[in-house]
Design goal:
2 copies of one chain form a homodimer.
Chain A lengths: L13 H4 L27 H15 L11 E5 L2 E10 L5 E2 L2 E2 H14 L4 E12 L4 H18 L2 E10 L7 E10 L16 E4 L5 H9 L17 H10 L5 E3 L5 H13 L2 E5 L7 H10 L13 E4 L1 H12 L8 E7 L6 E4 L5 E4 L12
Parallel strand pairs in A: 5-6, 10-13
Antiparallel strand pairs in A: 1-2, 2-7, 3-4, 5-7, 8-11, 8-12, 9-11, 10-12, 13-14
Family (chains A, B): Belongs to the HypE family.
Protein name (chains A, B): Hydrogenase expression/formation protein HypE
Pfam family, one (chains A, B): AIRS_C
């Protein structure tokens, strides 16, 4: 679990008590741990370490240190966005969606975050022997419906089966290709001091919806996942101006992780206004109950945008006029102070630092 | 296991004995079974049924009934090949290669089978909690080395972690994009009576190499997997003529499955010459020992080509001059007789039918 790796966790479990103190090393950020922990898949600091220390050197490709969202590749004269994600959400079906919706919307949104118009998807299923074909069909139908809603074609696919006990029903990996319009250059490095920071709607709904039905965590709340395709919203924003600097969909690790990544990639600071961040009351209540911070809860149908201040008002208006952006809000600004750091101005007049989370608060959220 | 679905298996297990005879239906081809069996991932008749009966209707895309190898998509004026595969091979390392090599070469080869020059790959890892980071690193390094050897760039990626007991160490899903040269149109539907059928080298090596180290099946043979990228070989063949009709890499289900799929897609027949098919002695011996047919054993560095007869000799010569084609052989021809059917002329003067296998002879071979 991700919290095995939490730096402020006291060693109070039986397993911890059995550790030989003479050979004990700090378990966080797990650089000396020889095994994979849940946090390596959480989209936070441990995920970043895995990329920087394992994948980027192995692939001999330092640009992969930015192995997030989509890559922009030139091929045959076209500027393509290319992205992939595996989806291992548990349970497979949750209020407002399913693994199939996530697998489409997540990859469509990764493409959209580089300004691309998503065009083609692939789906690769890893099925566990013994899973009901009706479950596979229900997920496949969700994929088909979500692809149609997002305006993309599932062009190719694969299916593998693993023995019972070596999977978890259904894992789906999607990859996607989209076309980046001329003149569009959207990436975390382009954040500039002065940029307005806009979020497209209330945060935390996906994470709380999944948690609400997670085994052992049932706490009936009447909220549903925000899973949705965002390419149409992005197209509407680009009609206002092509000079949008950064787009990001705050999935694993939530808004907190996304803003930290942008601050680090661009060498700027982020300053949020606490009360401007739209947190639905049910999300706030659930987070209070579970001891979670809404800033770190996953979203699957929201984006955060860094927009030059002269365009901020018009972009915000265009977002609010789009079905996926009715709840859009200006939540802060990009600053030259404290580069690489995200701070929140609290309602009491103070500030607090929002650090990059080590892992996901609850794993397998997407 | 795939053999649960074998049509000629007598109901002789305890589980079978417990079936109520009044409600019993034939377990093959499993249309009435409500659950996923290993054979659904085997690349044979059960895989085809899953695509035709579940995925194609769910995606509302009848062209997906041809959900194999790579799709050719038009985007931004470019003709792109796009492909994906999940890799779940067990064990992760085997004589001659690893999961990492397969994950690159398999997708590179799927792109090459439409004549494309592979350019970009994505990798998505699903890691099991507790797997050693050294294992992940070893696989990542194999991915990096194989990508360099194949001349492709790993452009984007993802990592998820699932709880211990819900995975099998490492699963990797790759997707790839390549550019299809002008004037090239390679697909199973283009097979024509008279086409020469050429295989690029000895068959069965990958499957036997993996089986040789599979738990419980150790039988020390000195052979290694044929895993290799084939895009260079295809480029050399296309230099002879762009009018190559069909290319296929006979992976899951082996040469037998690939030829059946081509015969069915094109409405032609395939006639092989038994003794012309290059089966290494060690593969023949291992298959005899295990009761397998080499025609159904997986390959990961071989292709089969359907070539107009006037170009056959020159294409064969070009293949033999390429490092990946030194063992190329003319193994038969495409005929107008028995459309959709593959037959082998035996050394004794008779013929036998090579049917589409139901599933993989041994699962999790790639």
């Amino acid at each position: 679990m991700a919290d095995l790796a939490a730096p402020d966790t006291a060693p109070d479990t039986a397993a911890d008590a059995a550790v030989d103190p003479a050979n004990w090393t700090c378990p966080a950020p797990l650089r000396d741990q020889p095994v994979v922990v849940m946090g390596h898949g959480g989209g936070g600091a441990l995920s970043a370490e895995l990329i920087e220390q394992v994948f980027a050197p192995a692939y001999g490709n330092p640009t992969l240190a930015a192995l997030t969202d989509s890559a922009v590749c030139e091929l045959g004269g076209a500027r393509l966005a290319f992205s992939t994600d595996s989806y291992v959400v548990r349970p497979l079906f949750f209020p407002g969606g399913s693994l199939g919706d996530l697998a489409v919307n997540g990859t469509v949104n990764d493409l959209a975050m580089s300004g691309a118009r998503p065009a083609f998807l692939s789906t690769a299923f890893v099925l566990e022997e013994g899973v009901e074909l009706a479950v596979v069909e229900r997920i496949a139908r969700a994929v088909g419906a979500a692809a149609e809603a997002a305006g993309v074609l599932v062009a190719t696919g694969d299916t593998k089966v693993v023995e019972s006990g070596h999977g978890d029903g259904v894992y789906v990996t999607t990859a996607g290709i989209g076309l980046v319009p001329d003149g569009v250059d959207i990436r975390p490095q382009r954040a500039r001091p002065g940029d307005a920071i806009i979020v497209s709607g209330p945060i935390g709904l996906h994470g709380v919806a999944v948690m609400s039905v997670r085994e052992g965590l049932e706490f009936g709340v009447g909220i549903t996942s925000d899973t949705a395709p965002l390419a149409g919203l992005v197209a509407a924003m680009l009609e206002v101006t092509k000079d949008i600097h950064v787009l990001r969909d705050p999935t694993r690790g939530g808004l907190g992780a996304s803003l930290n990544e942008i601050a680090r990639a661009s060498g700027t600071g982020v300053r949020l206004r606490d009360r401007a961040v739209p947190v639905p009351e049910e999300v706030a209540n659930a987070c209070g109950f579970l001891g979670l911070d809404p800033l770190y809860v996953a979203n699957e149908g929201r984006l955060v945008a860094f927009v030059p201040p002269e365009h901020a008002e018009a972009v915000l208006a265009a977002m609010r006029a789009h079905p996926q952006g009715t709840g859009a809000a200006l939540i802060g600004e990009c600053v030259a102070d404290h580069p690489g750091m995200v701070v929140v101005a609290t309602g009491l007049g103070g500030t607090r630092v929002v650090d990059l989370p080590l892992g996901e608060q609850l794993p397998r959220i997407c």
